[in-house]
Amino acid sequence: MGMTIAEKMLAAHSGHDTVVPGQLIECATDWVLCHEITTPAALRMLEERGMDRVFDPQKIVAVPDHSVPAMNIKAAKMYQKLKSWVQEKGIEHFYDVGRGGIAHVVLENTGLMKPGQTLVSGDSHTCNAGALGAFATGVGSTDLAGAIYAGKVWFKVPETMLIRVTGQTNPGVTPKDIVLEVIKRIGADGANYMVMEWVGDYIDNLDMEGRFTLTNMAIEAGGKTGIVAVDDITRAYMQQRGVSPEQYTEYQSDPDAKYKVVVEIDAAQVEPTVAYPHIPSNGRVAGSDRIAVTHAYVGSCTNGRISDLRDVARILRGRKIAENVQMIVVPATQAIWKQAAQEGLLEIFVDAGASVSYPSCGACLGMHSGVLGPDDVCISSSNRNFVGRMGDPSAQIYLASPATVAASAVEGYIADPRRYDAEGNDRNAAD
Q1: How many beta carbons lie within 10 A of that of residue 347, not counting itself?
Q2: What is the enclosing helix (H) or strand (E) of 311?
Q3: In this structure, are residues 198 and 214 in contact, taking their beta carbons and an 8 Å threshold?
Q4: 127 is in an annotated binding site
Q5: Which parts of 212-315 are beta strand (E)?
Q6: Does residue 361 have a known ligand-binding role?
Q7: Annotation-wise, does 364 bind a ligand?
């Protein structure tokens, strides 16, 4: 019996010729990604047990991103703990405040993480890196501690869901709409502990930023990770970061690989989609209900990339945000912030009445820099709309693409972005 991409990578990293779903394996980790929220707890576990070591300081990437710049003393202490550990252990890859941004987006752009490698982090959206043809997943602080100490983690080999997306999207429809449509169809636990493997001619023609959006949200369907196989688009992306094909291993699923379930999506039938409160699977067509919004948020590890900001700028250019709406735009990294400034995007946002913030996860999980108050209604390009996710438990969060967020900010109601996108949607095509 053939194996899937994920099974091949897990077999290679656990010393097996083959693995099967349900098999328990001890898997070597090529990389461990650390930030200031979950890492300090893992470090305390190691210190309390006299196991205060790092398996390889060159294989750890540290990026403070959740509560930085620190909004209170507790946050400052967590940041200090991460930074002092980095300095003490000689962690080579440290992207400090002002030099990094949101960890997953920072990592994807470094060239450190390569196809065929494994990655763990104490963050559920670690699956983001699966777009590179890698096995990347979030773990709890205990497993994170083990990975830091030994460079290994125990996994139960997951089953795989094949998601085949064919055709091309219509103007105004983006990768975020595709993944929200998939989650709507399969449910919030439809891929429970599965790998979500994306294939089809839509994927073949999708740029890397769109692929990252798809794999980033695997966890919102209960998935263990998301994966896109390496192709010429991946190779070009890696080459741009100084990484040649000789430096990594490509894996492809065998023709006779076994899948738990196959999902078929016709991209031409997908419409701009909004996930209603309080779960990402509660998807409906954008603008199908007249729902007033008080806040609009563009950012996060899901949709804070330069192509997302261009989508927003295309809609906001020459327009004003509705008076009742507070809009925050958060470029995902310092590099993206700088590029957006050079392209004149930040000026468009400010002229429209939006606030442009520094790269962080703060507003996405209701920690700082945009916390929602009682009964606020936010349309967000982030990945979760759980009760209390972005602030007060009574606040309502609607998930959508950056284009839908921008259109809604202009109109003051959840809006269909297609009326602003008559000129076409260039997010589908790879550069």
Answers
A1: 14
A2: helix 306-316
A3: yes
A4: no
A5: 225-228, 261-266, 273-275, 283-285, 295-298
A6: yes
A7: yes
